[in-house]
Amino acid sequence: MKRDAVDRTLQEWTDHAPETDVSGRHVVWRLQMIAKYISQAIADMDELDGQLSSSAVRMLLHLIATPEPHEAHPSALGDRLLLTSGSMTALIDRLEGLGYVSRRRDPSDRRAILVGLTDTGKETARRLSVAHTELEARILQPLDEQQRAELTELLRALVLAYESDGWQFPKG
Description:
By secondary structure, the protein is mainly α. It has helices at residues 5-16, 23-46, 54-64, 74-81, 85-97, 119-140, 145-164, and strands at residues 71-72, 101-106, 109-117. The protein has a 3-stranded antiparallel β-sheet with strand order 1-3-2. A hairpin with a 2-residue loop joins strand 2 and strand 3. The chain is elongated and about 65 Å long.
């Protein structure tokens, strides 16, 4: 079996501190490493002329995935993107200034607003969606279909366990 960077690091650890149980680190450190690789690949891809942050891209992708007219309440978007209301307001302001989104009153609740994609936002979101799909295929290329399905189930089990225990990710 080939050894990766985590194996090499943990071997040094067990050589110098054999009393330490590192079995969980075999998984957690690999998850952290893969998350860092993926985050960097997405960040590199998402820098369209330096205008869009990864949060902005995720927001555009969430909106394009909603039914026409591709609108949502800022609070719902913030929950999905793990952003505070202040961060959401700043993000919406930025995307509105760039011409990607617009705001309008919610006709079913005049106290609320809806954020929706403009034509430019729809075009950009569709292009980003294609690019993300291609990147995801490259990221998962080393795994066959069965391995992807198994990994999906294992990760889902972790997410469900965290959700049922009331874990909440910190919002930025």
